[in-house]
Amino acid sequence: MGGSDKLRNMYNNCPSMIVIVIMTICLAVISPFVYILFLFFIGNFQFMSEWPFKSLIAENFYWLKYGIIILPFTIIVIGLLLARKRYMNVMYRKYH
Hints:
Blueprint: H1 3-13, H2 15-43, H3 54-59, H4 61-64, H5 67-95
Helix pairs in contact: 1-2, 2-5
C-alpha cells in the first residue's frame, strides 16, 4: 500500500480532516503577512495626537520579529493536532 493509497483512504474516511489540513496550511502561509500588517497598524495607531504603541514596538522589535516564524509554526502545530483529533474521533466512531 503506497503513500497515495493511504491518503486516498484518509480522504474517503474523513474528508473534513483534509479540509482542516488545507485550511491550516493556508493560514500558516498568510499569517506572517497579517502579523507584519498588524504590527504596522498598531504602531501607526494614533490616539489623541499620540502614538502610544510606536515606541513600544520600536524598543521590542528584536523580540517581535520572531513572531514571523513562531506564529506559522504554532498555527501548523495546532491545526495538525485538530486534524489528528478529528481523524481519531471518526475512526473511533467507525470501529467502535
